[in-house]
Specification:
By secondary structure, the chain is mainly β. 12% of the residues lie in helices and 30% in strands.
């Protein structure tokens, strides 16, 4: 591949090319033909909220909007660099910021016009290190070692990252698929591979194999129309009844040899939507689920797949279905479960809890560019649906969560990308809601998810609807980073509240990763510490799920000065309490008591 160094520019020189770039935003939901159903689901419930919520009535503005915050501290707000916004129209979607990836002290932010690299060694003061101009669409990014993977979807994308676009309807210069950059020299990224695909790459997922350290895999999620076969041989469209080789109803699997990423190639195109009879388009056929429900697209594509290699599963948000994949063989993912939901219009993304027993799917009702968090909008539309995962991939709906405060008619708002905050003993997810802001959801009890913290700005405008707000919010090494579509990057830290103790925060902040991609979910383990033990105790005391006398004993040994024998003795008492709880002789939280006892025993051996 041609070296991309000549396309890399410092921010001062980017404005000259900014006006030449065109683009599109996330696709709106299409309405498919109505399907006959056997029963009518209940009406979607109305949204409920606190009339005194400080997010109501915030003043509008681009960089001067009013804001409201709870349970968080805003450490930094970094505007978009020159060349990655249109100064005359800041909400211009051709320059929208998109997703984030992290490696070491670096943050990589995608953009419809390329990507940027920030130094976050001081999280409260991120500094722009490099901007890479490479138009091609959504610019979804992932990082693995010295490689950056980037999605290219739009027809303007060029193999050489040129800003002039591609004029011809069929061209060998067009790039639609995934790009791979070698960033072993972070000041001079070099494009080493461009893997073409029939529908381009709206998003992608890096997948690792715990048994294979020599390769990574990239799942391509294409959502565009099929490109001409004259441009890329083998690309044909149509329903499977018409053409069994259709480029719809599948994903693409790219194998990337780490010692030679330039040899990356598609090695599989699995038909993950097939039914038991082999019908490759056998899942949801599109339409609605009965009167009063939503219309959703036919399941012929995935918008996003989140891989969780440590448990061998991936969650796919795929048009009209949420699916569960077995990825123990990453090159050959197989579907083991699927669900549909009458409240969902477009299944968008997935996040697992740390144990892999629960999965959260999001509904991008309206395609992300519509106001779907108004007082008149149902509480289960454009929301999270939370499913318990049973044996064999069976998924059972436990509950819903939607941003619990109404937004205005000029604020695009719907559930979007987020990640787990590693608080031991709890399932907490930080999540973006576009112009609805940031919301932290506790779904430890999947049937009763609730908000524990938030940040929100007023609308970009009170007169017109512009696409803006948070694309994603991710936890990385002790801080939350928000990708603001039209404004830039925000950095937050957690603060103690009635919902979250100082020890829970410190326990979460103790977790560190060398790199992080939200769609390559890692399983978290916590080193034994007083903070982890205190976190478990705080949770049980908060919920009144431990005997007062036992809580006092635990607190005494955690306050310092306890001998190893004293710690082991309290651990034994907790284990005895847990046994009585499981036998029905005592009330309390047996699981947390057992975990707390385990931490105390480990501390006693240190």
């Amino acid at each position: 591949m041609k070296e991309m160094g000549r396309r890399i520019m410092r921010t001062a020189s980017l404005m000259a090319v900014a006006a030449l770039v065109g683009g599109i935003f996330a696709p709106a939901v299409e309405v498919a033909a109505q399907q006959p159903q056997q029963q009518v689901p209940p009406a979607a419930p109305a949204l409920q909220w606190d009339p005194n919520d400080p997010r109501i009535g915030l003043g509008a503005g681009w960089l001067d909007a009013e804001s409201a915050i709870s349970g968080l501290e805003l450490l930094a707000a970094i505007p978009r660099p020159d060349g990655f916004f249109n100064p005359s129209t800041p909400a211009d979607g051709r320059f929208s910021n998109t997703d984030l990836a992290f490696r070491g002290d670096l943050l990589i932010q995608g953009n419809y016009n390329g990507f940027q690299i920030y130094d976050i060694s001081t999280p409260s003061d991120p500094t722009l290190s490099l901007s890479v101009v490479c138009p091609g669409g959504q610019g979804d990014v992932s990082v693995y070692g010295d490689l950056i993977v980037m999605s290219a979807q739009e027809t303007r994308g060029r193999l050489d990252c040129g800003v002039e676009g591609v004029a011809d309807s069929i061209s060998a210069e067009r790039m639609r698929g995934v790009r791979i950059f070698d960033v072993s020299d972070w000041d001079n990224p070099v494009q080493v591979a461009a893997v073409q695909s029939c529908r381009g790459s709206h998003t992608h997922t890096v997948v690792t194999d715990p048994q294979d350290s020599e390769n990574i895999y990239v799942y391509i999620q294409g959502t565009s129309g099929v490109r001409p076969g004259e441009e890329l041989p083998g690309c044909v469209g149509g329903d499977p009844e018409e053409n069994e080789n259709t480029a719809l109803f599948r994903i693409e699997v790219v194998k990337v040899p780490l010692d030679n990423p330039g040899a990356a190639e598609i090695v599989n195109m699995p038909r993950i939507f097939a039914d038991d009879t082999g019908n490759i388009g056998g899942l949801w056929q599109g339409g609605d689920h009965g009167p009063g429900t939503q219309s959703s697209r036919r399941t012929n594509q995935c918008h996003d797949i989140t891989a969780f290699p440590d448990i061998g599963l991936a969650g796919g948000a795929c048009s009209g279905n949420g699916i569960l994949l077995d990825i123990t063989d990453p090159a050959n993912p197989t579907r083991i479960g699927e669900v549909s939901d009458p409240n969902f219009a477009y299944w968008h993304s997935a996040t697992f809890n740390n144990e892999g027993t629960v999965v959260v799917f999001t509904d991008e009702w309206g395609g992300g560019s519509a106001p779907r968090c108004r007082a008149s909008d149902p509480a289960t539309w454009g929301a999270n649906a939370i499913f318990r995962i049973g044996e064999g991939g069976d998924m059972q709906l436990a509950g819903y969560y939607k941003l619990p405060v109404p937004q205005t008619d000029t604020e695009n708002c719907v559930a979007h990308n987020g990640s787990i905050i590693p608080v031991p003993g709890r399932d907490i997810m930080a999540q973006a809601w576009y112009q609805g802001g940031v919301s932290l959801m506790d779904f430890t009890d999947p049937e009763n998810a609730f908000e524990i913290a938030f940040f929100d700005r007023g609308p970009l405008s009170v007169e017109s609807l512009f696409t803006g707000g948070y694309w994603s919010v991710y936890w990385y090494n002790g801080r939350l980073y928000g990708a603001e579509i039209s404004r830039g990057i925000d950095v937050f830290r957690l603060t103690p509240s009635e919902h979250l103790s100082e020890s829970e925060i410190r326990a979460a902040e103790s977790v560190s990763f060398d790199q992080f991609n939200a769609q390559l979910q890692p399983q978290v383990t916590w080193a034994p510490s007083v903070d982890v033990a205190q976190a478990y105790l705080d949770q049980m005391v908060r919920a009144n799920r431990i005997l007062n006398a036992r809580a006092a004993q635990v607190q005494n040994v955690l306050n310092g000065g306890a001998s190893a024998a004293q710690m082991a003795g309290v651990a034994s008492a907790l284990e005895a309490d847990a046994a009585r709880i499981r036998a029905g002789e005592l009330g309390g939280d047996a699981d947390r008591m057992t975990k707390l006892a385990g931490v105390l025993r480990q501390l006693a051996m240190q």
